[in-house]
Amino acid sequence: MAKAAGVGVGTVSRVLNNHPSVRGETRERVLAIIEDLNYRPTPQARRTLPSEHPLIGVVTADLHSIWQSRVIQGIEAALSGQDFGLMAFALGTPERAAQLAQPGHPSTLAQGLLLCDDAAYRSWSTQEHGQPAVRVGTAVQDLDYVAVDNHYGGQIAGEYAATLPGEIVGVWLRGQQVPHERQTARKGFAEGVESAGRQIMQHIEIDPHDHLHRVAGELLDRLPQRATVMTYGDQLAVALMAEAQVRGRPVGGDLKIIGYGDHPQAALVGLTTVHQPLEEMAQRSTELLLGRIRERQEGAAAQAQQVQLLTPRLALRGSA
Predict the structure, then answer these.
(1) Tens digits of per-residue pLDDT, 179-216?
(2) Is 150-275 a CATH 3.40.50.2300 domain?
(3) Where in the chain is the domain with CATH 1.10.260.40?
(4) Confidence (pTM)
(5) Do β-strands 144-148 and 167-173 pair in parallel, antiparallel, or remain unpaired?
């Protein structure tokens, strides 16, 4: 039935159970297929249908990164006191991402989806949308989204780096799969430095799969004695600080290091970094999604695209 109607198994289940989250047009199409096939669910079949407890689906690249951990915290904060469960899907591989667009994927059981990954968004874009979705972390044209203004984040880091002595060095990821937010932060950093009348002496690109501590050692070998280093993320910045300590090279003096993200470890080691309000971003994304779900349940006309761009800030600590 799901294949004939061009919807997911979860959508058919909700129609059979008269769930209010299914749009009228979709409901009528599924009911017509049910009538054509003369389908009558048995009591045993009804008992095996998925639970109608409302669910929010989170679709992301992985479930183990620091970024995703902070996002999940924000989602859980938004769902506190709400009658919604949470299920997560780690795509991980292109094959898993492709499965997201297939009828019957478990994500169709959710009343709404939070798309936290480019692959998830691309796969979602290829299917008929049986439920509302919100893009988390990146601006898109056809969905509600909440994102961080990473261009501004890079810019304030660049403006600050320009006030510090020594050569300015930027360390970035290399490759075609670099996330958009990393690219915009890099562009903003360059503009921030140049707007202050300084120049970036070196742009160093590294492979995203390189071992961070090995990269940190190679970077220290290449850096001038007096340098301010802007890294694409906190993890590399922390590794660079650790390697400098091993070599007896004080951080915060002639060598200054700036990270990006402000993950929990940054405050512990005294890393100056750009704070990304990831928990707030995820919480607001979830609240937008819950609003869209309520629209469908109440049969209200859908509002225009809703977007929110959050402002990062510079967290000044001892490393720069």
Answers:
(1) 888 999 999 999 999 999 999 999 999 988 888 889 99
(2) yes
(3) 1-52
(4) 0.80
(5) unpaired
